[in-house]
Amino acid sequence: MLAENGEPAAAAELMAQTMDTVPEWAAGWELLGSFHEKAGDIAGAIAAWRRLEALDDEGVFGAVLKLAAHGAEPASGGTAVSYVEALFDQYAPKFENSLVERLGYRVPELLDELVSRRMRELGIERFSKAIDLGCGTGLMGERLRARVDLLEGIDISAAMIAETARKGVYDRLEKAELVAALNARRADADLITAADVLIYCGALEPVLSALVPALQPGGLVAFSLEAHDGEEAVFLRPSLRYAHEATATRAVLLAAGLEVLDFESAVLRFDRGAPITGLLVVARRPPITGHAANDHETGGDVAA
């Protein structure tokens, strides 16, 4: 109640007394850290999160991310799988109301516009199979449905999968971590989307090394990123979401063997009234043409 009434310092004081009584309560240390953070006591927050880190073996509270975001530990640049799963399991029932109605979330709409334009320019009438990574409650899938023969949704959160299953948007749903799910596929999708998903993944190289082989030659990938203008290629924000620098991101895409078709800046949503600027990207795995196509047909080696 103190925290909700705008008194985080008082909430932290009371919570600290509580933790003297139950020092093994991981969720309590997470709350204490958040109260200290809101009160501007970053040293107190870091101390609480260090206690949390020692208790939370599976990482569901994201202590390592919280410490890294405040400079207390180096950022790994990787995905905190257990934290993201727990976050969206908790978030699922109120996801659409919070994101769309309160925060003005527009990423599925914006990505869909880019994909539609590229379909017209490339002469693509329909996609045979699309994979929607981090499908959530199906906001991106609803946009794609009419243009895809087989639509597959993948999400790390069982609660999100349950929410979207009620809509009947996807032909197949899978609960899985996205890199593991992509590694199980080889050139079987002609479209892969990731709307507001890679902001939890940090470094793009591991994702792209799994994603590109999962695309058919000529297949498209469309995704969003939060953006920042600093010198670092990837920056972990206090929100515990990663932001990517534009020039470095483009270089990573090219190094992964993708052709960049669209690379645009846009406001993705609002957070506490402030616009969150990001990047909207559409890229293509180069199609097999000419000599490479002949080698492919005769079983020769192909570099695509």
Automatic annotation (TrEMBL):
GO terms assigned for molecular function: methyltransferase activity
GO process annotations (BP): methylation
Top-level taxon of the source organism: Bacteria
UniProtKB keywords: Methyltransferase, Transferase
InterPro entries: Methyltransf_12, SAM-dependent_MTases_sf, TPR-like_helical_dom_sf
Pfam families named in the record: Methyltransf_12
Gene3D superfamilies (UniProt xref): Vaccinia Virus protein VP39
Residue span, Methyltransferase type domain: 131-220
PANTHER family: TRANS-ACONITATE 2-METHYLTRANSFERASE-RELATED
UniProt name for this protein: Class I SAM-dependent DNA methyltransferase
